[in-house]
């Protein structure tokens, strides 16, 4: 809302200045614990500037981190604060390597991160409590009324009531056509004709108009009244007839737009976080794990059956763009590569069965991640033949291709992997893939990776 824009800008700057101050304090305390002195050496002064600058940049990506109002829930704020710390650590580690700062004390870095996390976390709790105290005081209340009693009016009332931390006080509904069975009847103060007098008598600050927008004369009349009496008129369009789920609404310059799917990865900042993690994680696996396992796996494949070590196949990726997907070969060379593997499939070698059971056959796909064709976590890239088959019978099948496919995914760790003999099994996969897109968070990716590793250790009955 425009009336809070300047407050949010001030709030943003204030919290970032507070963060940098706390980071400086954390450096001093950490240096005292590690070296017994509050005075930082030159290299640590330089590192402090780098540490604070990276935090300023990274935290600026997230509204959760630089806001203390009640428009976002506590669990989202905590989760996103953790995400920002992880992203900050990844970027800072890269800076340490690039600027050759390996001589920095690892113990000091640990102390600094722990104390920074503690100080910033506690500061957010304190500022949240101060904010709540202020907004719940009488002087902070903004009085508002809602025109209409329909779906949009009820949704607005419930949302503002549940998030009454911006100091707003609801004064009542106004409508000409009130449902006699409505549970809000006791809160209706009159019809729209009574609205003007009520606003003047009770010093109303805001009017929320939730009725259909086809009565231009009524809107113009209320607009003129609001301007003449220093009342804010806010129009809340009712899209319930055409939109039946959570949506994202944003502005392109001054043009309002609605995205009919709630997809966190539509935000550039989230895509940046996910891509940075993909690059760092895949490079770690390629440099540390792949050189150790590759010779062993390659030798085992060659000893059991003739053919190449790697298996390459075209798979549909983001927006159905085909890419070459790499795997370790788990089958004997055959001409039925578009045929899905089945239980006790005679094409699968003994080495291949073990690799499928432990997901080791997917190891080369980290090169696909590095190339940008895949992500560490995302919907699994199915066969081209499956795309043609299931997109005709499963309505949301193509929706899963709005995001980059992954080495592992939410459906796989939820028990939906392996052969899909029946359509309903693929429908469940698609359901979990779409659910992943709607609920994505960095911590959700971490959970899926952990469950994937756990399943690799214990083995999966559907992995064949």
Automatic annotation (TrEMBL):
GO terms for cellular component: membrane
E.C. numbers: 2.7.8.31
Domain named Bacterial sugar transferase: residues: 274-457
Superkingdom of this protein's organism: Bacteria
TM regions (residue ranges): 12-33, 45-66, 78-101, 107-126, 279-301
Residues of the signal peptide: none
Compartment(s): Membrane
UniProt GO molecular function: undecaprenyl-phosphate glucose phosphotransferase activity
Keywords: Membrane, Transferase, Transmembrane, Transmembrane helix
Membrane topology qualifier: Multi-pass membrane protein
Annotated PANTHER family: COLANIC BIOSYNTHESIS UDP-GLUCOSE LIPID CARRIER TRANSFERASE, UNDECAPRENYL-PHOSPHATE N-ACETYLGALACTOSAMINYL 1-PHOSPHATE TRANSFERASE-RELATED
Family classification: Belongs to the bacterial sugar transferase family.
Protein name: Undecaprenyl-phosphate glucose phosphotransferase
Lineage, broadest ranks: Bacteria, Pseudomonadati, Bacteroidota, Cytophagia, Cytophagales
């Amino acid at each position: 809302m425009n009336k809070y824009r300047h407050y949010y800008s001030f709030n943003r700057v204030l919290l970032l200045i507070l963060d940098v101050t706390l980071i400086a304090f954390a450096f001093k305390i950490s240096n005292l614990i590690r070296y017994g002195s509050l005075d930082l050496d030159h290299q640590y002064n330089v590192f402090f500037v780098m540490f604070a600058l990276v935090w300023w940049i990274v935290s600026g990506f997230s509204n959760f981190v630089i806001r203390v109002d009640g428009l976002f829930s506590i669990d989202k704020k905590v989760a996103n604060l953790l995400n920002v710390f992880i992203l900050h650590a990844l970027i800072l580690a890269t800076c340490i390597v690039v600027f050759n700062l390996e001589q920095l004390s690892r113990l000091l870095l640990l102390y600094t991160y722990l104390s920074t996390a503690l100080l910033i976390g506690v500061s957010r709790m304190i500022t949240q409590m101060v904010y709540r105290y202020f907004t719940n005081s009488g002087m902070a209340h903004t009085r508002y009324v809602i025109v209409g009693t329909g779906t949009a009016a009820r949704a607005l009332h419930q949302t503002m009531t549940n998030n009454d931390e911006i100091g707003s006080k609801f004064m009542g509904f106004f409508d000409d056509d009130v449902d006699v069975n409505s549970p809000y009847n006791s809160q209706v103060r009159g019809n729209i004709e009574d609205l003007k007098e009520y606003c003047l008598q009770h010093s109303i600050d805001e009017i929320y108009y939730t009725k259909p927008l086809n009565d231009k004369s009524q809107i113009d009349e209320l607009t003129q009244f609001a301007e003449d009496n220093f009342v804010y008129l806010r129009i809340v369009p009712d899209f319930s007839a055409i939109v039946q789920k959570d949506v994202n609404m944003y502005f392109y310059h001054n043009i309002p737009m609605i995205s009919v799917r709630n997809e966190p990865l539509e935000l550039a900042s989230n895509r940046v976080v996910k891509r940075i993690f993909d690059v760092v994680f895949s490079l770690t696996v390629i440099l540390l794990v792949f050189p150790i396992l590759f010779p062993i796996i390659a030798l085992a494949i060659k000893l059991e059956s003739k053919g190449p070590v790697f298996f390459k196949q075209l798979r549909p990726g983001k927006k159905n763009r085909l890419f070459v997907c790499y795997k370790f070969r788990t089958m004997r060379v055959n001409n039925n590569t578009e045929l899905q593997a089945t239980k006790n499939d005679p094409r699968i070698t003994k080495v291949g069965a073990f690799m499928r059971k432990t997901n080791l056959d997917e190891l080369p796909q980290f090169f696909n991640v590095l190339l940008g064709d895949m992500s560490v976590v995302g919907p699994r890239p199915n066969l081209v033949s499956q795309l043609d088959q299931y997109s005709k019978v499963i309505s949301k099948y193509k929706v899963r291709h709005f995001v980059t496919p992954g080495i592992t995914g939410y459906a796989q760790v939820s028990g939906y992997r392996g052969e899909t003999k029946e359509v309903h099994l693929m429908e469940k996969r698609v359901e979990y893939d779409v659910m992943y897109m709607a609920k994505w968070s960095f911590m959700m990716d971490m959970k899926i990776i952990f469950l994937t590793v756990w399943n690799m250790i214990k083995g999966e009955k559907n992995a064949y």
